[in-house]
Write a structure and sequence with these properties.
- This protein is an alpha/beta fold.
- The chain is 44% helix and 28% strand.
- About 5% of the residues have low confidence.
Length: 204
């Protein structure tokens, strides 16, 4: 009987730890990024689209870094995607520096991720232009939670995962040849910063 009690307590602790972990922003963020990466791989034809996840690139001008959740390099342009796994409804204006999140009956200001992603787009463009390549980059903000309530006015680049993929597939004008596409992928991969110290400094 005592052993059964110990087992119940043990599994109870495990379940509690799992619940607590799922509520942590870092855990939710990583989970959301994995979900979006999986959907991109599943829905985009690898013959035309190459998906790069979690890249840290030098920021525009070489000062600082830009950590980018997903970059889709395609024959139809480059798509720079920022994933946000927020909890609680979010409302705002595309031009405002801050949005508003409603959580547990309280309002919380959020930094507009469009501005954050604009820096990521500029980092990509900077690398391409310095290498003598055309820089056609489209930004998107993705909310992976299907039940999440979000209303952002003044833009069409904010949406859920499926909506964003549909928009990406809507770009059909060929911008890059296969050779150019592969060259861009190789460049971005070569500039990806992987050292633990650099990534820790970026996150601090």
């Amino acid at each position: 009987m005592q052993n059964v009690i110990y087992l119940v307590i043990f599994f109870g602790i495990i379940i509690l730890c799992k619940i607590v972990m799922q509520r942590l922003p870092a855990h939710r963020g990583a989970q959301g990024e994995r979900f979006v990466a999986k959907k991109l791989r599943r829905e985009l034809d690898p013959a035309h689209y190459v998906i790069l996840n979690d890249l840290m690139l030098p920021a525009q001008g070489g000062v600082g870094t830009a950590q980018i959740d997903h970059i889709v390099v395609s024959n139809f342009g480059i798509f720079c995607i920022e994933t946000k796994s927020y909890v609680g409804p979010v409302y705002g204006d595309a031009r405002a520096k801050q949005w508003t999140q409603y959580f547990s009956g309280q309002k919380k200001p959020l930094y507009n991720p469009i501005y954050q992603n604009n820096r990521h787009v500029e980092a990509i463009k900077d690398l391409l232009l310095k290498s003598g390549m055309r820089a056609v980059v489209y930004p998107f903000i993705v909310f992976p939670n299907r039940d999440f309530k979000v209303k952002i006015y003044g833009t069409s680049i904010v949406g859920r995962t499926g909506e964003t993929i549909e928009k990406i597939l809507g770009y059909r004008e060929q911008i890059y040849s296969d050779a150019e596409k592969n060259k861009i992928v190789a460049l971005l991969a070569s500039k990806n910063i992987t050292t633990k110290d650099s990534r820790r400094q970026h996150n601090s």
